[in-house]
Amino acid sequence: MTKTSTIKKNEHTPDLADENIAAVEQTVTPAGLPDSPESENQQTSLSEDSPKTDTRKTIEIQISPNGNWHAQYEAVVGLSHRKSHPPLPCQDAAISIARPHPFAISSDGAGSSATSEIGSFYVTRGISRLFQTLDKQMIAPLLDVPETNDEACKKFALLTVKHAQGILKDLADEHRRPIKDFRCTLLITLVGTVHTLWLKIGDGALVYETIKEIDGQRICELKTLGDVGKGEYANTTTFIDEYLTQNDVQMGTMPSEHITALFCMSDGAAEKLVSTDGKRVSTRLSAWAELLRQRKLARSKLSETFYDKDFQNRHSGDDCSIAIISAEI
């Protein structure tokens, strides 16, 4: 996994009272998957009077997806935007596609840019079309072969960024506005049969899921990619504009074999789902991934969650968006 830059942020103490937050380094069990009863039975079967030793070997299996992916996404306007006069539109945008190569994209328009909701929308849709157009010509030869070509992956990632810059340039020309009025972040995950490519410009969070089966019990693990960041007004962040450099782009590749789900989200969504340092991730994500692979995750479920009273408690009121791809196992 490679990175070309690090964007430093001021850290804060995450809301550890949220029962949906779990340490990334530890295994977590998503909602709907019961805790293993075996360990409890073993504990209750031991006593000081009759010590016993369990000689059974622990069987641990790393789950691999079967290649059938599902996609869902949502973007909702933040409550603080609705309190403005006049109300501001949702400046987030997201999209995810399950075939032919699964990908998830999210973008957060800069709050200080007058028409950034236009920029974020057209960047996500434009990159989505680019990936579908180049699927056989560039993506398959890059991500579906055993050999890892880091230089070629880097070139493709930077080509994607250049395309996004071109989209904003075209919007600026069409609307007779400076490019800075359309600035937005960009988060991407693109899955091949062998390799997965990720790219990050600005704040928000990229998360991937893997699943282990230990003695028949499935345990989900959630980890972040790149720096998380906490938003434009919390500290300086990076946006796509004419001043963007290669050093502002975080990117990398990793094996696809054991990835069971991927999530791209704006900083508004990450505010309650991922801690500032990226070391804690909400198990809610694995619950959503499980529903999605069962084809039971409606977009309305995501929007209802973002407006839920518990989710909004101590929330900044920023827009929330997320793009999810989840594989059957």
Which percent band covers the strand fraction?
Answer: 15-25%
Uncertain spans, ≥5 residues at pLDDT below 50? 1-48
- The CATH architecture comes to 4-Layer Sandwich
Whole-number count of domains: 1
Give the overall shape: globular
Question: CA-to-CA gap between the ends?
Answer: 24 Å
Keywords:
alpha+beta, PPM-type_phosphatase-like_dom, 5-stranded antiparallel β-sheet, 9 helices, 329 residues, 6-stranded antiparallel β-sheet, Phosphatase 2c, domain 1, 29% helix, disordered N terminus
What does this structure look like?
This protein is α+β, with helices and mostly antiparallel strands and 329 residues long. The chain has a single domain (69-327), classed as PPM-type phosphatase domain (Phosphatase 2c, domain 1, 4-Layer Sandwich). Helices cover 29% and strands 24% of the residues. The protein contains nine helices and 13 strands. The chain has helices at residues 37-44, 79-82, 116-133, 135-143, 150-175, 267-273, 284-293, 299-307, 309-312, and strands spanning 21-23, 60-62, 69-76, 92-97, 103-108, 186-191, 195-201, 205-214, 217-225, 250-255, 261-265, 280-282, 320-327. Strands 2, 3, 8, 9, 11 and 13 form a six-stranded antiparallel β-sheet that branches. Strands 4-5-6-7-10 form a five-stranded antiparallel β-sheet, with helices on one face. The chain has a two-stranded antiparallel sheet with strand order 1-12. Helix 3 packs across helix 4 and helix 3 (116-133) crosses helix 5. The two termini are 24 Å apart. This is PPM-type phosphatase domain-containing protein. Pfam families: PP2C_2. Residues 78-304 form the PPM-type phosphatase domain. Residues 39-48 have a biased composition (Polar residues). Residues 1-20, 25-55 are annotated as: Disordered.
